[in-house]
Amino acid sequence: MELLRQDIALRHAAVVAARAVLIEALGDRMCGCGKGPSPEDIKSFELAQQAETTAKAQLERYLVACSDPLVS
Predict the structure, then answer these.
(1) How far is residue 16 from each of residues 1, 65, 72, measured CA to CA in Å?
(2) Distance between CA atoms of 7 and 41, rounded to whole angstroms?
(3) Quick one: which of 22, 23, 35, 51 is 20 to 30 A from 12 by CA?
(4) Structure pTM?
């Protein structure tokens, strides 16, 4: 279970980092000194969010399996 929690923490950190890139790019665009987020930036953020969601679902399934012997 601890490994699943660590995985969630790592995935969340990736989401935070990708979000920061998007925010910075949007800020640059609004100031007129940049082009805004690239398609790769957006895709990276999307993939990071999906990975975090998957990791949370894995932990949830694990917890359900541990609490209900009929699920196993």
Answers:
(1) 23, 30, 34
(2) 22
(3) 35
(4) 0.83
